[in-house]
Specification:
The chain is mainly α and 161 residues long. The protein has one domain. Helix content is 73%, strand content 2%. The protein has 5 helices and 2 strands; from the N terminus they run H-H-H-H-H-E-E. Strands 1-2 form a two-stranded antiparallel ribbon. Helix 1 packs antiparallel against helix 4. The chain starts with a helix and ends in a 5-residue tail after the last strand.
Length: 161
């Protein structure tokens, strides 16, 4: 897979993950507002997100990390950061999943933990987009990307030649 294909795939996946995170956050808010009958649905969606995000991390480990290493010194630095970020994310995911599976954990606690997870993952994806998968490292210095753009995708900063 070519670097720009990897980048495009990750940005597309991030958009999908953001929609899942938004859904999780809305469900968690409803539970926190007293609609505890929704805890089962929240647990199910949280477990589904865990599975989907684990697949996303595996994709990045398989394709992005080697592409970064191949990009030279700056890429190696980003690769090392990606490895550390993924280690931390997996640790938080394991903790959160154990809470989702623990039926004795109060609904309010589960909802608060999931809201914290949502915030963490959204922040991590935004930072990753602005630094680790920015196009200069992955092959096209005429592109910039990140969550600051209306569509969250790339914008050409120089005219086509």
């Amino acid at each position: 897979m070519q670097p720009l294909e990897i980048r495009k795939s990750i940005l597309t996946d991030h958009a999908f993950l953001r929609s899942m995170l938004d859904d999780l956050d809305q469900r968690a808010l409803r539970v926190l507002e007293g609609r505890e009958e929704e805890i089962s649905s929240l647990r199910d969606r949280g477990t589904l997100f865990h599975s989907r995000f684990t697949e996303h991390l595996a994709f990045e480990d398989r394709f992005l990390e080697p592409a970064l290493r191949a990009a030279g010194l700056e890429g190696i630095e980003h690769s090392n950061q990606l490895i550390e970020d993924h280690r931390e994310q997996r640790e938080v995911l394991r903790y959160t999943l154990s809470g989702l599976r623990d039926e004795s954990r109060p609904a309010q606690v589960v909802a608060k933990e999931l809201r914290s997870l949502v915030e963490l993952i959204l922040d991590d994806m935004a930072l990753e987009e602005m630094t680790i998968i920015r196009s200069a490292v992955l092959g096209d210095p005429d592109l910039v990307s990140g969550p600051g753009h209306p569509d969250g995708h790339s914008v050409r900063t120089t005219p086509h030649r």
